[in-house]
């Protein structure tokens, strides 16, 4: 995030290609979807903030340049804990991670959730079966203990509960089991934690990869029918999950607990290269409570991060819960292997300048303990060493804080004010 690129060219491209009504109508027809010229459906190009204005506002908000740190940062900043390649205690791995996050001052945890959880294997005995439903997982002693900890938000990653992703290409697949299990889980959470101000966000992981199926980097020529089927299926899937959560909320008695449903996008900027994306081809056709952005494709510069958020909000169709598009950063991280502390901290400070200036409600680091082996070389181990890993971490295997961990912990310690002068850096 050190260079401010030519994102104004992207804005011109969007304006040229997307504001023409005929092009939008053609796109809707291709997908077999209604043509609706509305603010958050298939619509003209988003109005993107000019790069110069973004740079000015980000500079003002950057903590290392004296920007004010939000006072509620502990309730907005968190990290993912799943499938780390090492552990630090003898506690069940899910609980070790949650306790470590609290120790860092973070009150937001992003956790994997389902009846198969190999990424929480250390020091654990789950005894879950293929027949276990989401409500059964929520009642498991490990999750009961985790949910009892003083977090204010839990983000739960839940993949399709039946059939994997094959229903996206099957026009007869209604995702009834997803709807039923989301209804059961949301109802259980709203009732069980009714006396506590806690938020649960139920989401999937990196939806653009799921949407593309086998075509990870881009759709191949001649795949128009496949694109149409997948987009239609994804709309049905998200609609079913949203319907389950909404029904549980409507039936809940007085409760302080909140349960929301989110979709996660991860290839927002591909839309500027004529590649169908979850943002442009699915979100306009289903109302969801929230959208999560796994934001790696937008972190090359503050301008790209800022405008990526604007693009998502433009196409998102919000549910009545918030009444407006709400986007959070569901995943952000930078591997520290081969990077200096100066490079990592500068990158983070630019990112936080964007998120603070845009008032992003949640920011989730990837991740607490690194989950990626460097270059996939070397012997397989039960527990990996620092030199084996890419460095997506807040806590290293030896228990020390990473560069990212030190920077984010400093923000938490000075929330509501500014970083001390001796930490701030000149422009």
Task: Give a verbal description of the structure.
- The radius of gyration is 21 Å and the shape is globular.
- The two termini are 15 Å apart.
- Helix content is 36%, strand content 11%.
- By secondary structure, the chain is α/β, with parallel strands linked by helices.
- Helix 3 (51-61) crosses helix 12 (341-357) and helix 4 (93-103) packs parallel to helix 6 (141-148).
- 46% of the residues are buried.
- Strands 1-2-3-4-5-7-9-10 form an 8-stranded parallel barrel, surrounded by 4 helices.
- Mean pLDDT is 89; it is low at 1-41.
- The chain is built from 13 helices and 10 strands.
Secondary structure layout:
Layout: H1 7-18, H2 21-31, H3 51-61, E1 77-81, H4 93-103, E2 108-112, H5 134-138, H6 141-148, E3 153-157, H7 176-192, E4 199-203, H8 207-212, H9 224-251, E5 258-265, H10 278-281, E6 287-288, E7 290-294, H11 302-315, E8 317-318, E9 327-332, H12 341-357, E10 363-365, H13 403-413
Parallel strand pairs: 1-2, 1-10, 2-3, 3-4, 4-5, 5-7, 6-8, 7-9, 9-10
Helix pairs in contact: 3-12, 4-6, 7-9, 11-12
